[in-house]
Design goal:
The protein is an alpha+beta fold and 399 residues long. It folds into two domains: 238 residues, Alkaline Phosphatase, subunit A; 154 residues. Helices cover 35% and strands 15% of the residues. The chain is built from 14 helices and ten strands. The strands form two sheets. Strands 5, 6, 7, 8, 9 and 10 form a six-stranded antiparallel sheet that branches. A hairpin with a 3-residue loop joins strand 7 and strand 8. Helix 2 packs parallel to helix 5 and helix 3 packs parallel to helix 9. The longest helix has 18 residues. 31% of the residues are buried.
């Protein structure tokens, strides 16, 4: 049986519904597709959001550094790519990439016709078809809204199974269909791919095979508990959509949080201060505090094996706040969304590199380090750009 992934950049589940209605209708109704309605990203950008966890079962921080600016960087060929296991099982691995410059309506027509062709010519008779996106839109105007914030974190993901698989493994398909409204990530998809490697024994392997994701993933052919939390699924607070936040009006806390966020961002470019400007606060859009869920504090496992009856008899309390600040810096009008771990008793603010999002376009602003240090592009405004801007403004003033 073949496994085919067709991936799309920056497409949330809601954007898929809005922009690809013909494709979605055909996939669900004609191909029997199953959409994951609670599918979360795990980080920022294509690699962290899902591609690396899907293909290796790991986050970038779990693996040796492969960044081009690291003198001890390793070759990514040594990463535990799942296609190596597919190759050992007799599969031929093929990868292709294309860039579509079509409007949504044209893409919808082209994509649905492509799927019809695959079905008509019997390519799907023995193929698991996966339609997926890495994340939702990250830098368009909608990203500055609450809707856009949620859509970035909830990408499209769908499975289509050949009729023979549905017929021969009904329990597995039924379980995946049941999981479609549960919290899922690419860690779960990675575990699912492992089960597909030995699909003839899927009812056995799905329950007995050891974890390939450090316990963060559950095969979609097994039941995912309704009570599953983001922490249990490996989703950091910054990316979790299952949380409730409240606005903070304490100006001193707003100022301290914004300073903590910018201090960390500036620390990443400190070694390149001859090229990157020290960013200053322009203004704070908002500061939110994660509302304490007392039920979660008291959660102490499940009372039944299906996870339908949670046990709320625990006694855990916490003295840690999670804050999320949205701000603009200058020069360059960079928009950032940063989640901060706040320890009030110690007056300490902690910012993880995985909890910082640049949510507007940076264009050519980081051109001076774009090639040598590409991972710093969201955080660098080049001094040469500042000089160019000053010279242009001076010239206009003289005219």
């Amino acid at each position: 049986m073949k496994v085919v992934h067709i991936g799309f950049d920056s497409t949330s589940r809601m954007a898929w519904t809005r922009n690809l209605p013909q494709t979605r209708k055909y996939f669900l109704e004609s191909l029997g597709g199953i959409e994951l309605e609670g599918h979360h990203i795990l980080g920022s950008g294509t690699v962290q959001a899902g591609l690396l966890p899907l293909l290796t079962g790991m986050m970038e921080t779990d693996l040796p550094s492969a960044r081009v600016d690291n003198i001890s960087a390793v070759n990514v060929d040594n990463f535990p790519w799942i296609w190596k296991e597919f190759k050992q099982a007799g599969y031929v691995n093929v990868y292709g990439e294309d860039l579509f410059r079509l409007n949504a309506f044209s893409m919808d027509e082209d994509l649905v016709e492509f799927l019809k062709m695959l079905e008509k010519q019997n390519y799907l008779n023995h193929t698991v078809l996966i339609l997926m996106a890495d994340h939702g839109s990250r830098i368009t105007s909608i990203r500055s809204t609450q809707q856009g914030k949620l859509e970035e974190r909830l990408p499209y993901f769908g499975f289509g199974f050949p009729p023979s698989f549905v017929r021969d493994y009904p329990e597995a398909v039924t379980q995946l269909r049941r999981n479609r409204k549960r919290l899922t990530t690419c860690f779960d998809v990675h575990e699912t791919l492992h089960d597909l490697l030995d699909y003839r024994n899927i009812n056995k392997t799905a329950s007995e095979r050891p974890s390939s994701t450090k316990g963060r993933g559950i095969s979609l052919f097994r039941e995912i508990p309704r009570s599953r939390t983001c922490a249990q699924a490996g989703v950091q607070v910054h990316w979790c959509t299952c949380l409730e936040w409240e606005l903070v009006s304490d100006q001193s806390l707003i100022n301290a949080s914004a300073k903590a966020a910018l201090d960390v961002i500036n620390s990443w470019t400190q070694s390149f201060r001859d090229m990157c400007v020290l960013l200053q606060l322009k203004h704070v859009v908002s500061l939110r505090r994660l509302k304490v869920n007392h039920a979660v504090e008291k959660y102490n496992g499940d009372l039944d094996r299906h996870g339908d009856l949670p046990n709320f008899l625990g006694k855990m309390t916490t003295n840690i706040d999670f804050l999320q600040v949205n701000l603009f810096s200058q020069p360059g009008d960079a928009a950032f969304e940063v989640t901060i771990r706040h320890l009030p008793d110690e007056s300490r603010f902690e910012v993880s590199p995985l909890a910082v999002s640049r949510i507007n376009k940076y264009g050519d602003d980081p051109g001076c380090i774009a090639t040598t240090h590409p991972h710093l592009r969201p955080f660098c405004f080049c001094k040469e750009r500042l000089v160019m801007k000053f010279e242009k403004e001076s010239h206009l003033h003289i005219l």
